[in-house]
Each structure stands twice: as C-alpha cells, then as structure tokens.
Amino acid sequence: xxxxxxxxxxxxxxxxxxxxxxxxxxxxxxxxxxxxxxxxxxxxxxxxxxxxxxxxxxxxxxxxxxxxxxxxxxxxxxxxxxxxxxxxxxxxxxxxxxxxxxxxxxxxxxxxxxxxxxxxxxxxxxxxxxxxxxxxxxxxxxxxxxxxxxxxxxxxxxxxxxxxxxxxxxxxxxxxxxxxxxxxxxxxxxxxxxxxxxxxxxxxxxxxxxxxxxxxxxxxxxxxxxxxxxxxxxxxxxxxxxxxxxxxxxxxxxxxxxxxxxxxxxxxxxxxxxxxxxxxxxxxxxxxxxxxxxxxxxxxxxxxxxxxxxxxxxxxxxxxxxxxxxxxxxxxxxxxxxxxxxxxxxxxxxxxxxxxxxxxxxxxxxxxxxxxxxxxxxxxxxxxxxxxxxxxxxxxxxxxxxxxxxxxxxxxxxxxxxxxxxxxxxxxxxxxxxxxxxxxxxxxxxxxx
Length: 449
Known about the structure:
Layout: H1 3-18, E1 34-38, E2 41-44, E3 49-52, H2 55-58, H3 67-79, H4 90-102, E4 109-113, H5 116-131, E5 135-139, H6 148-153, E6 169-172, H7 187-205, E7 210-216, E8 218-219, E9 225-226, H8 231-242, E10 245-249, E11 273-276, E12 288-292, H9 294-299, H10 315-330, H11 333-355, E13 359-365, E14 368-376, E15 381-382, H12 394-405, E16 408-409, E17 411-413, E18 416-419, H13 427-445
Parallel strand pairs: 3-16, 5-6, 5-7, 7-10, 10-11
Antiparallel strand pairs: 1-2, 2-3, 4-12, 8-9, 11-12, 13-14, 14-15, 14-18, 17-18
C-alpha cells in the first residue's frame, strides 16, 4: 500500500470505530474521507476532486482555506488563544462591531453563541423573557437546529423523533406558491392568504400568549423558499399589532448567501432579533449569535439575562469572523454573490429546467438556489415521496451518485438539489457545475412520466 492508501485506511478505520455521526444509522453509512480542500473544491485520498455545490453545509461562503482568514486565526492563537466570555477583549468587540454595522435597523447588540441552534435557543429565551409570554410560532416548512427548543421549532421531518409536544411551539403554514397549502392561483394571492392564515392562528392561539414568531428569512433546508414580496412586511405588521417579537433565522442565509449581507435587506424588514452563524466565519471556527434590537436589549439593562455559554465569543472564532467580514468587504464577495445569481446561476438553472422534464421549479437568490425535482410536471408529483428512505428514495440516490461521479458534490434534500456554492465561486466553476448537473439530470429524467 502507498502512503495515501495507508492514510485512507487509518482514517476510515478510526471513523468507523469511534465517530458517531449525526442524522445517521451508524452501520449503514460510509463517509467519504476528505484529504484536503481549497477554494470551491475538496478532494479525497484517491485524488478525486469535487466541486462543492453545497459549501459544506452552506457555510464556506468564501470557500475553503482562504489565506487571510487562516493567517488571522493563527496570529490570534499566537497572541491570545482563549479568554473567558466575561472579559472585554479587542477581537470580540471588533467582531461585534463589524456584525452590528451590517445588520438591519437597530440590531446593535450582539450575543455570541457557538452555533446557529444555540442562537435560536437564546433568541427564543430573550423573546419569552421580554414579553412574559410562553408560546412561539414557527412554520411547518422550516429548520432551526437540533437542540431542544430549536428542533421543536423545526417544521420538517427531523422534528418527528425529537418532538416533545411540550415546548410551547405552534406551527403554521408559510407561503409556498409551487405547492400552495392555500390553493392560491398566484404569488400575490398566496401572500395574502398566508398572512390571513397567520393572523387567524394568532387569534385562535391567543395573542396575549405568544412571545414570538420565528421565520427563516429565506427558507433553507426546506427548499430555498423565497417569500413572495409583501409577506415579511406583512408578518412584521401583524407582530407589531399584537406585541409579538419577530425573530429572523439567518443562520444559513446571512453574510452574502443571497447577495445581500442579510436576506432581510431584500424586503427592507428589520426583525427584533436576528440569528446568525455559518457564513460569519465561513465555518473556519464555529461561531453564532443573536443580533438584538434596542428595545429587547433595554429589558436586560438592569435585569440579568439568565443565559450564557463557556465559549461565547471565543477569541479564535471572533478572529475568524473579523477576517472573514473584512475579506468579504475587500473582495466584494456579497456583490459577487448577487451577480452570480443574476447572471450565471439563475439563467443557467432555468436553462436546465427547459431541457429536463424532471425539473419542476427553479427558485433562489444570490448563491442559494433549489431545483424541485418531479416525476410529473403537470401534477407536480415529487420525484420521491416526503421523507423518503431506502428504495423509495432510489431516484434521488441515483441522481446524487451521478453528480458525484461527474465530480460535483451535491446538497440533496428530499426531492430537491440545493445549489449553494461558495459566494465567491469563479464563473468557470459555475459553468462546470452546471454542465455536470446537466448530465446528471438525465438520470432523474428517466424516472419521469
């Protein structure tokens, strides 16, 4: 065996013996062993290179191994590699300042967490303490994380094995014109009926019992759901009228993913609390947080906030955040993400839809898109059933295998492929990825009627 083969065998053996993987039946998986990564690519020990159209888990917004962020983390580690969260420290303050300057409205206070789920947990806690109310409303088509409150807020099937039915969560239907729960004829009607449904849900739950409504500003894991114009402003108005806190979950879509620093900017809506993570450091060091409005911050001006984390605002993570934000500013990454969506991904994916009967809908913004794969365009029957596994999921498994065989690493979710490359992906790599998708979609086409 050569050195690469020896290394591969060692990694796989240790992984099998000691690593417990998330969302998986441990004996039924065979994870790819990754040897390295750079830019928009990663590779295995056998020399196979993959163009990453998933940005890991939608977080390598500036790609892998950006030298300026790597250097910033190394320099911070050499200078001060940890300090308790109760101290004021330069790099933490600077990270908070840079984030606050980019969040909408008066979201000027930053509570740091280690990841997105913790950000959601703390945002909900803040809302409940601020209002003195217990209930939180969230959409059925949503994902908010895997910790206790976050997984109960989640609307997709990952909630099923964790749902305690005691978390004070009420789910409602958000707008999704392609699979309208409101039998709407167009997006304007979908928006109007979705807002009426939310208002009715609030009335029948009792507005005086509802602390918050939490929404993904653009639905991520549920299918890159871009809300129709008017919906988020309408939700803002409903929340204001009933004294309900509005929380935006921008864990997946913040920091350039949709072509704006935060997706809320597309609709000029400011929430009371905004959750972030992932792209704030491009995933180089885990970091998340909650951006807090002046009104909610004032609640805790002389009243202790009953929450905290040992590694809140860890200095290595904050150094990565400062460097990432500066790189995005200096290199125009947010603007590049917007152009890539408008000029390359959007037109390219819509062209694929014209050629492939398995593509039912294309939707997205910036460097965040989804292809809805169907068996029948007329009936919109999904390529695989909801929450499919095993043989039922075979068409999507075959499609994913064709992508990987072509050198593209896809992000598959249900009957969809989510197209989320690094926000700074080069134009030639977009073209390469679209060409691989073009070929792989013939596999999905074989399952259409």
